[in-house]
Amino acid sequence: MAGNDLEFRVGLGHDTHRLVPGVPLVLGSLVIPYDFGLLGHSDADIVLHALTDALLGAAAMGDIGELFPDTDSQWAGAPSSIFVTTACNKLTAEGWRVGNVDVVIHAEKPKLSPFKTKMKNALANLLEISPDCVNIKAKTGEKVGTVGLGDAMECQIVVMIQRPSRPT
């Protein structure tokens, strides 16, 4: 294959969950020490939910709710890594691979800086890419809106996927 005979696509993922006491806070497959966790049907990992949607969106393969509906009891309490792995397997079957990932986590508290490197490595491992292809940013809500008031957390992710160009 010569030159730049690659096809590229970009996908955007977003997820929001309310914070509640009494459940673990799971972000990017890491359990983060905090008095509140995210409420959801699975482990409510907003990072992996947004990542799943970004991957599926980039490949025009639907969204997380279509593959893993919150009305299906088999996903109750499930680790969200299952969702990412399934999405990656679907992409791989079509010849796609992940090029890079850019993550923005919106959370007033806790401070996420101490966990960014571990989260970056966990995502890289899950996606089977180099950690230098994963970027994680943490932003507060500046005390504005549901994030800023500490009622919820949000995550936005952009992914780039690539595969050899198909003959036309």
What report would you give on this structure?
- The protein is an alpha+beta fold.
- 36% of the residues are buried.
- It has one domain (6-164): 60s Ribosomal Protein L30, Chain: A (2-Layer Sandwich).
- Helix content is 27%, strand content 32%.
- The chain has helices at residues 46-58, 64-67, 81-93, 116-127, 145-148, and strands spanning 6-21, 25-27, 30-32, 36-38, 97-106, 134-139, 152-164.
- The mean pLDDT is 94.
- It has a five-stranded mixed β-sheet.
- The two termini are 15 Å apart.
- The longest helix is centred in the first third of the chain and has 13 residues, at 46-58.
- Strand 2 and strand 3 (30-32) form a beta hairpin.
What would you say about this model in short?
The protein has helices at 46-58, 64-67, 81-93, 116-127, 145-148; strands spanning 6-21, 25-27, 30-32, 36-38, 97-106, 134-139, 152-164.
